[in-house]
Amino acid sequence: MALSDTQTKARFVAEFPVNASPKILFPYLATASGLTQWFCDDVRYVEGQRLNFIWDHENHYAEISGQRLNRAVRFVFLDDHRQSLPDANYLEFSLDSSQVTDEVYLRVIDYSAALDPAEQQEMWEGLVAKLREQVGG
């Protein structure tokens, strides 16, 4: 996910209702085995808080920069040499529950190369549909 300085980045934010408790849902958002089931081709732990996300046989290294159990996780992507970048791409998943309706919402924050917002929404809807199939929600 190395970007040249000429590419514009955008912060995409979307919320999706998911019919599963945060305890069931969180491992699918924060572990290599869980992410592999819905998010990308494969995810492997590399070292410490670092993971390798694999899409189409390409490695994309990221570091877990923050995590709150059953609530939120943020992955900050690294350069090709696995080093931090000043304006790095990141992906954040957070779970919110409505006390009134008992619904659980997955909030996705995707900070990366600017894409067509409609295409990005469609991509995330497809990914979250796969996630819902995995958790039965």
Task: Tell me what you see in this structure.
The chain is α+β, with helices and mostly antiparallel strands. The chain has a domain at 22-115: 2-Layer Sandwich (Alpha-D-Glucose-1,6-Bisphosphate, Chain A, domain 4), CATH 3.30.530.20. It has helices at 22-30, 32-36, 117-135, and strands at 9-18, 42-47, 50-55, 58-68, 72-77, 90-97, 104-113. A 7-stranded antiparallel sheet has the order 1-7-6-5-4-3-2.
* Beta strands, count: 7
Summing up helix and strand content along with how strands pair, one would put the structural category as alpha+beta
Q: Which strand order does the major sheet show?
A: 1-7-6-5-4-3-2
CATH top level of the domain at 22-115 is Alpha Beta
Distance between the termini: 31 Å
**Element pattern in H and E:** EHHEEEEEEH
Helix-residue proportion: 10-25%
